[in-house]
Amino acid sequence: MDTVGRKRASRERHHGVVANVSARIRSWLAWLQCHNKAICVATAVVAVVGTALSLSGCSVVQPTGGLRVVSTTTQVSDFTRTVVGDAGTVYGLIRANQTAHEFDPSARALWELSQANVVVMNGQGLEQWMSAALEAAGFHGTLIVASEGIETVDGDPHVWTSTINAQRMVGTIATGLSRVDAAHADVFSANAANYQARLQALTTWATDDFAQIPEAERLLVTNHDGLSYFCREFSITFIGSIIPSFDDNSEPSAADIDRLIDAIRRSGAVAVFSETTISAKLAETLAREAHVAVYSGADALYADTLGPTGSAGATYIEATIHNVRVLVTAWGGTNTSLPEGVLA
Ligand SMILES: [Zn+2]
Q: What is the 124 CA–ligand 1 centroid distance (Å)?
């Protein structure tokens, strides 16, 4: 199957995932209804979910006032927490090191959605499971699509990997939150402006660091097609990915691997870069066969997810710094020091 065919197959598989989520949510709600006779079947899903959690002894955080926000990917959650600051609470659905392409809503996730004033999502088709989850939770708040207004290329949803796009997403989140909570509009706007300034300093630093490497030698081979906007921003040529798909759960064929080894040899790429959410085994095998270096483990790149607290990629800014440092060093450059204020 060619790359276009694989991407289509990947999109079709996403539809299957959505159907599975819907079926699972329906059966889960049916379970709640027959195990909790005190609850009227006609009661809103919100009440069903909340009561069931209380009865089952789960610790449920009661609303304490202020804006309640639920966000999707780790990157969007990081942007949203920074903009919201102390003016509300943010619950991130996708956890560190989890793929951004699939999500299995837990009872807690559905309850958080049911209580939220605002949901912030990446958009561009990444969260295929979202409408089923919102419907099941009875979400009645405001939906902010952080990537709104950003032009995608070939339907690629990984827009956040461009630090310029990240600045726009932060602005869109702040504008959307201000419409819902006008009393805190000044706070959202100031937090966003401060963060955008840090992201701009990050962009400038990364551009200068990459400038040490001639453009013809900035050749990237990764696990999946997750960094194309990053590549475009820093004039990096994307040679290919082990998984020829935007979805990190797809699998390559033997012919795909042979084609990529050939592309590596012809391009003169010096390394294969694994990503934190994907097994490094294929990247290591590929690098061995193509006689190039492999960067995995602590040197793996952050693409679809941020890392846990304490890791090198716990925040969007830290993850981007990590990626720039790994790439610049692998291509023979030297890391320069960060300008003041990039890291909080
Ligand atoms: Zn991805």
A: 12
Residue with tokens 């889960």: 28
60 CA distance to ligand 1 middle (Å): 32
Q: Which of 176, 206, 236 is the last residue of a domain?
A: 206
Dist. CA 17 → ligand 1 center (Å)? 15
- Residue 96 domain boundaries: 3-206
Answer yes or no: do 89 and 190 share one domain. Answer: yes
What is the Cα–Cα distance from 123 to 71, expressed in whole angstroms?
Answer: 11
Q: Are residues 319 and 224 part of one domain?
A: yes
**Cα(129) to centroid(ligand 1), Å:** 15
Domain annotation covers residue 92: yes
pLDDT above 70 (res 51)? no
Ligand 1 mean position, distance from CA 57 (Å): 36
C-alpha 4 to ligand 1 mean position (Å): 16
Nearest to 75 by CA among 329, 339, 338, 277: 277
238: CA distance to ligand 1 center in Å? 15
Are 190 and 224 in the same domain?
Answer: no
pTM of the predicted model as reported, rounded to 2 decimal places: 0.83
Residue 101 Cα, ligand 1 centroid: separation in angstroms?
Answer: 6
Measured in Å, residue 10 CA sits from the centre of ligand 1 at: 11
For residue 222, pLDDT over 50 is answered with yes
pLDDT tens per residue across span 117-169: 999 999 999 999 999 999 999 999 999 999 999 999 999 999 999 999 999 99
127 contacts 70 by C-beta, under 8 angstroms: no
Question: Exposed, middle or buried: residue 11 (CB in 10 Å: 0-12, 13-18, 19+)?
Answer: middle
Cα separation, 134 vs 140, whole angstroms: 8
Assigned domain for 137 exists: yes
> For residue 175, how far is its CA from the centre of ligand 1 (angstroms)?
27
